[in-house]
Amino acid sequence: GVVLAGDDQDAIARLRAARPTAVNLAWGVDQAAVWVPHGREAVLRAALRIRDEDIAACRAMGERGADLLAPAESGELLRIMTVCNTGGLAAVERGTALGVVQTLHERGRLAEVLVLETRPLLQGARLTCWELGRMGAGHRLVTDGAGPYLLSRGGIDAVLIGADRIAANGDTANKIGSYALALGAERARVPFMVVAPETTIDFATPAGDQIEIEDRGAEEVVAIRGVRLAPEGTGAVNPAFDVTPHELITAIITDKRVIRP
Prior knowledge:
By secondary structure, this protein is of the alpha/beta class. The chain has a single domain, classed as Translation initiation factor eif-2b, domain 2 (Rossmann fold, 3-Layer(aba) Sandwich). 36% of the residues lie in helices and 18% in strands. It has eight helices and 13 strands. A seven-stranded mixed β-sheet has the order 3-2-1-4-7-12-13. The longest helix is centred in the N-terminal third of the chain and has 30 residues, at 40-69. It is globular, with a radius of gyration of 19 Å. The N and C termini lie far apart (43 Å).
């Protein structure tokens, strides 16, 4: 029955809308915001509960994904390809797609990870390689454009990506470059796996063509950390995400189940 102050409402609305393609930020804000009328400590308790549930979900996704990709009886070592950052830096601890990789590594079932650099902000190069180095997992960095070609050459056992939003029909929005990997994986007959918590599935969005794709403007593309790559006046198209149709997805691995679109 308590009415929120205007400043509270504005702050909640700004945070909720900060990443329009992704669904989990808005979901988490909504989960915590209902406690604002009850005071700061109530909001903090809700946030800590969300954190603990996220940690448990990441561990469950890692185990379910590792069980699916590397059954105990097979014994083979796997080479995995991934894009962007889906580890503990993105998801409190362990992560989604990289949580599966970490579980494979801990079980002694990981040969190597091929990490796409993830232009234009280089999350794969800057973040994923750092996390893999810390866990002691073998990895090499790959330019974004080389990913589909390397899939065509064979020797890669699966592509693992995260998800920012999964539509009701299984179409999946993820970091730009994911769709190209899905096309390459389909051609090469390599399993293409999406790893994300159940909360990423948005039943209010029927299909991927209704997912808003965030465009982050030209500056990230024409320059890197202030160093200009293109001539002054050059424009750019910079979608931060793409959508992979469900037909190209082998399985969606969540903390609760394996979905085969």
